[in-house]
Amino acid sequence: MDVIANIISMHTIRALISMIQIAVYGKGGIGKSTVSANISYALADMGKKVMQIGCDPKHDSTRALLNGREQTTVLSYIRDTPPFNRRLEDVVLNGLKDIKCVEAGGPEPGIGCAGRGILSTFDTLKRLGVDDMDIDVKVYDVLGDVVCGGFAVPLRNEYADGVYLVTSGEFMSLYAANNILKGIRNFDKGIPRVAGIILNSRGMENEHSAVKRFAEAVCLPIVAVIPRSKLFAQAEKERVPLLHLFPDSDEAAELRKIAENAVSILNDKSKLLESRPLNDEQMGRIAAGESVLPNSEGTVFDGPVCRSCVRKRGSEKKREKLVASCAAAGAVYGCSTVTDSVTIIHGPRSCAHIMSSSRNLSEIRKGRKRRFMDDPQFMRIESTDMDDTVSVFGGAGLLEQKIRDLILEGCTRFFIVTTCVSGIIGDNVIDVVTALSNQHPDLYFRVVEADGNILGDWDDGYIEAADAVADMIDKNVLPAGKRVNLIAERYFFRINEDKDDDAVSLLKQFGLEANCRFMYETDMDSITNFKRGTLNFIVNDDAMSRGVAKVLEKKIGIKVEEDLLPCGMYELKRFAERVGKEFGIEKEAAEVVRKEETYYLEAISELRKRMEGKRVFIESSYTHSIDWLIELIKDLGMEIVFIGFAPEREWKAERRARSRFEGEFEITRDYWPDDIIADADRIKPDIIIGDSGRSGVTDLHYMSFVRAGVGVKCVIRFARELADVMAAPPVEGWRLTGKGEMMGDERNGRY
Questions:
Q1: pLDDT tens digit sequence for 629-656
Q2: H or E segment at 553?
Q3: Inter-axis angle of helices 349-365 and 327-335, to 10 degrees?
Q4: Rg, Å, the chain Cα set
Q5: Is the predicted pLDDT of residue 307 greater than 50, yes or no?
Q6: Distance CA 632, CA 687 (A)
Q7: Catalytically annotated residues
Q8: How far from 60 is each of 52, 105, 150, CA to CA, in Å?
Q9: Residue 529, Cβ density class (10 Å: 0-12 exposed, 13-18 middle, ≥19 buried)
Q10: Cβ distance 248 to 2 under 8 Å?
């Protein structure tokens, strides 16, 4: 079997070596299909075995070769035929002179992605064995829009040995030809692959001289000059190539020049030339009728540059926003916090799996295991399960059917989040939802067009979800009772099941009620009555939370408190003053502070015995305010030997990390976490406390941190965890030290 496989493989390799693939490109409507069909006919007339593949959604490339017969397109075939029933002969028809004819096809106008269809077509043909066919020349007739990666596929080495550019003397036609040269330049990696220019005349004045100026500027030959002729219209009417109907015409002679050129390339590929596109200024001179001197080394054209290649390593400290996860994921997380709604991910099943898994993991980490198992529908996420076929032909119908199915199940509130696939192919989700909303006016629909990461990253998607959820708020509701709104609570990294209840417990201590926990396990009624809350506090001092606060302030006209929900004694006292004054409960608030301070001081006094005098190195990359941490370390009697805030990201620029301890401790700004190892070796702290997770110091204690939570008890919990870390050895006995040496127990043979 291995021998047979090797023989088959070698046969395929020999076939590919003796075959040439040419791609015919040009502006739409320039006559590529007519030229391609005649090239194929001429090559077949010369005894070559030819296959022509039409790569235009209108699938009319091979019509003349098939005498007008209908051709089953590859894309319609894969849409209607299961994979196990597909055969190559179903999509390959024999035309005139036994030319093998294939049409890629495409979606209906205005939906789906035709470029993605080209990718699917080529992949299907390969799977069905097209490379094993006995072919001398493959001719690709391609739509001229190489801006799209799908239509640029035939430019790649794998498919096109030589590329012909069909153009007229019109500037836009030449402009398209130059763009195609740019596309070739992106793919060729220095391999010459341009065969030449084909002038398909429009009958313009001085047309030949205009094309000649362009050809000389890009160092390409004009392979053929096809005159404007009524013979082409007559041949098209007869549904045959011009060469078949008028073989002795001057037009036929020019078309044969192209075939002869292709054969010469088949015998000697050194005749292919490099792509040397012009820049915009040079193209402007061509349009003005001026000559442009050729550049033997190739012209550098304007375009995006790889930032990692030009960046001076180690010199640029200001970090840009990183797209750690897409906007669709952030939007799904935010929308799914509305517990009596359904969030539909309009995208592939794989995306839905990743997004829903992260949401579920967050709930499990918060100790919601029991509730999650008892009530699996408390957080509903659905997916339209878009596959490759849908990405080509559009998924609007799939989305409509998914919503209708969920309506039948009794769902009444829907958030629809778009992913990369639906965004790229241009699914008109708004129209689908609008039509369904008109049919079901009693149901709630809201679309979040995240389009994967087109909107931005996770943060941007989460804020966009906040905007969508805020649409539910009734602006006419008035404040009532001692109610407080909590905004943008998130507890990704806290595993203790009680921590996320600290906020509610704190409010109860002051006799207050949590009115709406906006974007945190909130039902529709609570969101609708958001404005019953008198005060509005965010829980975390980060870009997302502040972004959500801005959405609410702008959309419904509320004021969000500048201070956060308190963390630590200092912030608790400020909070007590604020709510005491607002709700007329100054005495009650003062009593709460007294009790909490007594508890805090007793706990700190006990822990201080274990921690006093220890040297602390603090590194903060993501947390805006760490005053609660500095306050705690001071109260524990520990010595702060270094505080470093990482370089400001773009999204942190509006809210620079700040501290009320600015004058008491030296704070290093624009601190790079990569410097921790060297600085720790120099400063020699007892422990590093950081939020980047990048210490790399294996012989020191390290503890990661996020904002401890809400109130005072959370700070004491953190202090106890810190004490436990300090009490343990910095490195387990079986591990190696940072210098690669074994620990003492290992050297002594004890494990």
A1: 999 999 999 999 999 988 765 444 445 5
A2: helix 543-556
A3: 50
A4: 34
A5: no
A6: 15
A7: 27, 32, 58, 145
A8: 12, 9, 19
A9: middle
A10: no
